[in-house]
Structures are given as structure tokens and as C-alpha cells.
Amino acid sequence: MQIKVGDIDKDKYSRLKLYKWFDLDLEKVRKTKILVVGAGALGNEVCKNLVLSGYKNITIVDMDIIVKSNLNRCIFFSDEDAEKKRYKAEAIAEKLKMFDKKLNIEYYIEEIEKLEVIEKNDIVLGCVDNVKARLHINAHCYYNKIPYIDGATHGQIGKVQVILPPFTSCLECGMNSTHSKILQLRFSCTGKDVKFFEPKIAADVNTTSIIAAIQVQEALKITHGMDNYIKNIFYYDGARNFADIFELPINPDCPNHEI
């Protein structure tokens, strides 16, 4: 076979294939069904990275609409989207097609608690902003033995927790009394359907991009059956230039770990 100079640049995934494990299992990535819950700043970056990494089957869930304040950290939203009050999930699903017209994209404009969609996917990436939704996703993923990669940001601080049933601790293992008090509260950057409202916090695309990148990186590891995924919690603090892995052991009293 004759290989011409520049042939490697004709393959969309040529640089990823330099990782031998990726080259061998690209078809796994294409076939894996990914659920992204939350289509805000974190969801935008996660969806972008998933598609650029080769994932073809993506479902997006988010009930919120686009507002002007979303635009400085959401690559898929425009001024026109905000003016038309488009739904976040709808806008992302439409614009992902710019990357790959053959994508299999579905979206739901509904609370995740009202849908039966988690069980239909192979990996779930959480990009939500409230405890109630997180615990719902966590419980359903653990029960159905579906990997759940939870991401969160707060200003320049972010974290990623990889939950791989039944081997790791889960989100509820680390819950405390403070989380219990806010369990039923709905935090929203849009103000829609708010039961409880907190002052706005600082947010920037840099922290969001870092956390989203770690989430998708861990999804790739799990897709390829690798064992070097984050088994506890990755913590990032941009203000202090600090990042580390914190241990979270399985809580024997956690209901998700009852035999």
C-alpha cells in the first residue's frame, strides 16, 4: 500500500488514533449511547467534546430556556437564541449537526425526574445545577449499573465524580445534612419555576471547560474499558492553582449500596 504525504491529515480522528487504544476501539465510541443531563455552560462544553471525540449517539435533557447571561460561556447559544427564548437542549441538538450531519441526536425539554431515559443509555454525564436532579440520576444509574460522571462548578472551583457501579462510592455517599436541607430546592439561572432563589455566583467558561474536559476524558476511559478512571473525586480550584483527587469511600449506610 502506498502512503502519500499528508494522508494522515485526511482522517478526522488521526490524532486521537495515535493513542493505540482509541484506534482499536473507535467503533465502541461510535456505538456508545451517551445521556447528557443539563444543557447549560457545562452541557455545552461536554456536548462539544463528546462529538469531537467521535461519539455519535447523544441524548440531551434540559427544560430551561436560553437567556442573555448564558452567552459568554455557552458555545452553542447566540443572541438570536436568547431573543427567541429557545430551549437550551433544542439549540444544542440543532447546532451539533454542524460538526457531524450523521449524528444521532435526541433531546427532551423536561425534568429528568419525569423521564424514563436513563436506562436506555450506556453512560450518563451530569451537568445539572441542583441536588435533587443529581440524586435522582445517581440512584437510577447505580441501580441499573450505568456509569455516571457528575460535574459541577462554583466560580473558579469545580469537581468531577466518577461513579461506576458497583465498584465505587456514589454521589449520595458524600451527602451531608446541608445537602438534605436543600434537596427539594430548584436552583435556576433563568428564574423559571424557582422555589428557592440564591444570589448569583461568578462563573466563567475557563473553569467550565476544564471540568467538562475531565468528564469527557473519563467517559472515553470507561468506553474503552480502561481501569485508570477517577475512582473518587477530582477537585479543581483555579484561584489557588490547585487540583487533586480526594477519596470518598463507600458509605455502608447509603441506600444505593444495600444488598
What is the fold's blueprint, element by element?
Blueprint: H1 20-24, H2 26-31, E1 33-37, H3 41-52, E2 57-61, H4 79-84, H5 88-95, E3 104-108, E4 123-126, H6 131-143, E5 148-154, E6 157-163, H7 177-181, H8 205-223, E7 233-237, E8 242-246
Parallel strand pairs: 1-2, 1-4, 2-3, 4-5
Antiparallel strand pairs: 5-6, 6-7, 7-8
- What share of residues are in beta strands? 15-25%
**Main β-sheet description:** 8 strands, mixed
Alpha carbon gap, first and last residue: 57 Å
- Which CATH C-level class is it? Alpha Beta
How would you characterize this protein structure?
The protein has about 260 residues and is α/β, with parallel strands linked by helices. It has one domain: NAD(P)-binding Rossmann-like Domain (Rossmann fold). It is about 30% helix and about 15% strand. The chain is built from 8 helices and 8 strands, in the order ααβαβααββαββααββ. The chain has an 8-stranded mixed sheet with strand order 3-2-1-4-5-6-7-8, sandwiched between helices. It starts with 19 loop residues before the first helix and ends in a 13-residue tail after the last strand.
Give keywords.
Rossmann fold, 8 strands, globular, 259 residues, alpha/beta, 8 helices, 8-stranded mixed beta sheet
Quick structural overview:
It contains 8 helices and 8 strands; from the N terminus they run H-H-E-H-E-H-H-E-E-H-E-E-H-H-E-E.
